[in-house]
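User: I want to check something. If I give you two sequences, will you return the structure for each one separately, not as a complex?

Assistant: Yes, each is folded on its own. Here is the first sequence with its structure:
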Amino acid sequence: MKVYLKADIKGVGMSGEIITVSDGYARNYLFPRDYAVEITSENAKLYATKIKTIEHRKEVIATQTSMMAERIGSTQVTLKRKMHHDGKLYGSVGAADIADALKEHGFTVAKSQVIIDKSIKEKGAHTVTVKLTSRLQPKLKVVVAAE
């Protein structure tokens, strides 16, 4: 049976795709949970146009995300923190601090997207990864300076 997916289903397909599944799976799982709609000869054209619209939207989002990745990669964030005389911080710089600093530069990034390889506990320049998508992960330069 051909169905149009309304939601992303792990291992099956993504929202906006037309896929073929077994009749039982569609009737017992997908339709009761409102995850899919059956493709019939009457509504096939309607869902074909929806797919084209969704693909176009995905392309636009992908280009915007790649442009954002380039801008993040060329950005340097400076954070001022209190520190000891030997250059070590009293605390550490976390993902939330970096996400807030990026927001000041005009980038809306969640703290879960900021990946810090090694904890930042001393002054100097550090490299942090910002995970926009599974493929786009620009490196960001974070400079920690004394207050």
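And separately, the second sequence with its own structure:
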Amino acid sequence: MSNRMLFTWLLLASFIMLFIPTSLANKMQLTFFHIFSKPLSMGKSICFALPKEKADAAERIVQNSRYIELRNHLANTMQQLKEQHQKVEELSGLRDRFAWKGVSFVIADAIAEFQGLQRHLIISRGTDEGIAKGQYVLSGNSIVGIVCEVSERTANVRLISDPRMRIAVKIAELDAPLILQGDSEAALKAGILPMKYKVNIDDPVYAMAKPGVLSAPVIIGTVAACKNDSINPLIWDITVKSACDLKNIEEVSVIVMNIQN
């Protein structure tokens, strides 16, 4: 019953508004505007204020120096854990081999230095980590040099490309020891090898095992060129290319023997 009465009153009001003069209708519209303008404007300001307050709160959080400091610390810690995990994975295969029993691989950062024909690395490990003169140094799972000078926290590594370097090597499965000598950053010389031995391009060249220093042969390079020697045609003139890019070494592993694990 009440709904019908409400409908009737609304219908009657609409008819009244329809037939009243225009001037009176305009006055009623202005009166309605003045009465409800303030509540409407307050609601609008509240709607616009909410996002701004949220933005101010977010800005206070972002600009908080302590928050930024902790965030950066977390990022650094996660990156360090990731690098340590990768290093463990890289070394796990080497440690599982019988030939590397009792051997420690000390990882170090490296900076290459080239002074004329002299070529060496400065690495971030020294006697405090068990580094000693004469130890072999790996990069990319290949021999790249030998430790020549050591201090408590750093060491110098003479690269295989240094003309002063001499390393006992063998080519592939040939039973013919050679002495590899540094010649340049991209090439090394291996001699003297009689012509009776068959040598092929890309044959692997291994640093030979050396008691107390290297427990098993490790690749050092590959045969890049092989031709008759210009002075003695009965021997090979062999050029060897390093198995690792010696110009872009950033990290090495020093082979430290007789470490109890």
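Because they were folded independently, the notes below concern the second chain alone. DSSP finds three helices and twelve strands in the chain. The two ends are 96 Å apart (CA to CA).
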